[in-house]
Amino acid sequence: MRWSQLHVPTLRDDPAEAEVVSHKLLLRAGYIRQLSAGLYCYLYLAKRSLNKIERIIRQEMDAIGAQEIYTPELHPADVWKESGRWQAIGGDMFRLKDRWGREHCLGMTEEEVVTFIARGELRSYKQLPQIWYQIQAKFRDEPRPKSGLMRVRRFTMKDSYTFDMDAAGLDAAYKKHYRAYCRIFDRCGLDYLAVDAHSGAMGGSESCEFMVPSPAGEDWIVECPASGYRANLEKAVTTAKPPAVPDPAGDAGLEEFQTPGKKTIEEVSEFDGCPPSSHIKAMVMAADGKPLMALLRGDHQLSETKLAVETGATRIRSAHAEEIDQWLGAGAGYVGPVGAGDLTLLADSALEGRRNLITGANRDGYHLRNVTPGRDFQARFADLREAEDGDFDIASGEPVRRLKAIEVGHIFKLGYKYSASMGLKVLDENGKGVNPIMGSYGIGVERVLTGAIEQNADSVGMSLPVSIAPFEAVVTPVNLKNSAQREAAERLYRQLETAGVDVLLDDRAERAGVKFKDADLIGIPFRVTVGRKIGDGLVELTERRTRESRDAAVGEIAKLLTQRIGEVMPVAESRN
Ligand code: ATP
Ligand code: MG
User: Fold this and answer.
1) Which residues are found with C-beta within 5 Å of the ion, ligand 2?
2) Residue 444 Cα to ligand 1 middle (Å)
3) Are residues 92 and 181 in the same domain?
4) CA atoms within 13 A on the CB side of 104
């Protein structure tokens, strides 16, 4: 490719609307342009990188015997009604009607559609196992599209689905995916962690997320370096001994005070002048439908996983406004443990022994002060709060830490949810109809690119791994007016192409400095500069990562470059 003929609209400055590094660089380097919130157009460079990521994904999926299919992005509502998810999924689903008024949606995932196909096709255990995958657009009406390509309303997902006769079969399919995902992310040059996304204590199916640690991430991982424990914060179970905080002084009894319009801990705290840690956060929850109140220190967060473990419930949710009103006669912002009727009270252990706290009065517009657990209300104490830095790992007793991360992939043992609800059955060896057991596995293709940019950027631009950079090398003549340089650059460009290098020729009539800057910004791993030394048969080879340069004989450059590309090409590590 010749740069003079491409549209690569690089920008000199960071765009004002971008916060995270990958968003800034994707715009500045001319990879993407926004159509509207969460909708992006991919220009040439983005498409090239994404194609390379998809190619790696295809190779590794094919290697585990997965068959590539394609299903429409537009789905009839019927299949989603069969699984129950038409009702269960809320605003994240884009819904529309066709000209006849029939309901449809844009696919956000494809379990229903593949189960529909399988139901029409699979008849016998002899046809199993099956692994089907596709690389296809997904649509989610995210409440807060942000960070460029990281959280968008239309993205590209590699999704695959497995059908097996029994749990052992599903386990084998799951492990194949686990290993394929490791190879994919290794080859894309990502530094990633595989993280437990399922709560062992709650039972249920196995699930694992592939996370790229980065300050730009929206997920939190809890990790214990000593034991190797790693879990998504939403699922992490640790033991906690939070540092003590002082109680408000005094021996006064309960006192109600007005807090009109102040509902959140922050609002009440600002209003009454006491820190959030002197407040009790009261959350009305339903555990398998049963009402309870979870109580936490005002600056702590509830871990629904720990609450589920404590109550033995399989489904925990926040109570609806009407339920709260019915149970306590007040809005969610004004509830508290004093006079909470029949509700079970569960308090986080950080509240044990505390005195003179502030909490809701179970009366709209009022709170109570001088609330002392044990004196003013009786609760069962348990560890309920979300893991924090300095909590302890259950297995090793060693401290954990929290890391921010970007979720790039997710593998999940689905079980029988879709085959049972949608009536997918095959005959087993005894001629009996049984539901196959399923798995579902996703990779966010754009997230692989954004993760790689976040992890490989410096002050002058992105520095993508050679496997997924839009080009592997650029040949840059310093002075196009000099015929020796121009002709040598042309020859070199053709030679490198013949040698199999994915190479770009920067034949723009720009100053050398501009060309160097652009190449560094868009992140081409190698630059071959053809300048004055061409008179002595020499060119310069510069590596983007280290920004080191060396002279090389023009006749040797193809060999040297292919060798260096081979050396820096990320490879899959072998894993079990
Ligand atoms: P998140 O928690 O980030 O919203 P998710 O858990 O809902 O993601 P999955 O349903 O597991 O996502 O989808 C599989 C993969 O698709 C994710 O691991 C992620 O890489 C990617 N993905 C999901 N939502 C988005 C989005 N809005 N924009 C870009 N990629 C996404
Ligand atoms: Mg996920």
Assistant:
1) 410
2) 6
3) yes
4) 15
Domain residue limits at 564 = 471-568
Q: Please report whether residue 465 resides in a domain.
A: no
d(CA 377, CA 347) in angstroms, rounded, equals 11
Strand (E) positions, 489-543? Answer: 503-505, 526-530, 538-543
Q: What pTM does this model have?
A: 0.88
> Nearest C-alpha to atom 19 of ligand 1 is from which residue?
444
Please state the domain count of the chain.
3
Indicate whether 78 and 215 sit together in one domain.
yes
CA distances from 439 to 54, 102, 162 (A): 21, 30, 5
Residue 112 sits in the same domain as residue 182: yes
d(CA 525, CA 545): 7
Residues 264, 349 within the same domain:
yes
Locate the ligand 1 atom nearest the alpha carbon of residue 442 and give its number: 14
Q: What is the pLDDT of residues 120-146, one digit of tens each?
A: 999 999 999 999 999 999 999 999 998
CA distance 378 to 356: 15
Query: 288: domain CATH number?
Result: 3.90.960.10
User: What CATH number is attached to the domain comprising 540?
Assistant: 3.40.50.800
My answer on whether 447 and 554 are in the same domain is no
Q: Looking at residue 305, what is its pLDDT?
A: 82
Among 361, 187, 396, which residue's Cα sits nearest to residue 260? Answer: 361
Q: pLDDT tens across 440-453, in order?
A: 999 999 999 999 99
| Spatial distance between the Cα atoms of 436 and 487, rounded to a whole number of angstroms | 64
CA–CA separation, 282 vs 336, rounded Å?
A: 5
- What is the distance between the alpha carbons of residues 122 and 161, in angstroms, rounded to a whole number? 14
With respect to residue 34, please indicate whether it lies within any of the assigned structural domains: no
Q: Are the beta carbons of 407 and 219 closer than 8 angstroms?
A: yes
Residues touching ligand 1 (Cβ under 6 Å) are 109, 140, 142, 151-152, 155, 157, 407-410, 442, 444, 446-447
Ligand nearest to C-alpha 234:
1
Residue-wise pLDDT for 513-545, tens only, equals: 999 999 999 999 999 999 999 999 999 999 999
Distance 317 CA to ligand 2 centre (A): 19
**Is 395 a member of any domain?**
no
Domain shared by 105 and 216, yes or no: yes
Distance CA 343, CA 284 (A): 9
Any idea what DSSP says for residue 151?
A: B
CA proximity to 282, closest of 362, 175, 392: 362
The CATH number of whichever domain residue 222 belongs to comes to 3.30.930.10
What are the structure tokens assigned to 157, written together? 């997902």
Question: For ligand 1, what atom is nearest to the CA of residue 448?
Answer: 20
228 and 137 in a common domain: yes
Residue 184 belongs to a domain: yes
78 alpha-carbon distance from chain centroid: 29
Task: Give yes or no for a contact between 22 and 29, defined as CB atoms under 8 angstroms apart.
Answer: no
Residue for token pair 């765009």:
15
Q: Are residues 136 and 189 in the same domain?
A: yes
Alpha carbons 58 and 134: distance in angstroms, whole number: 9
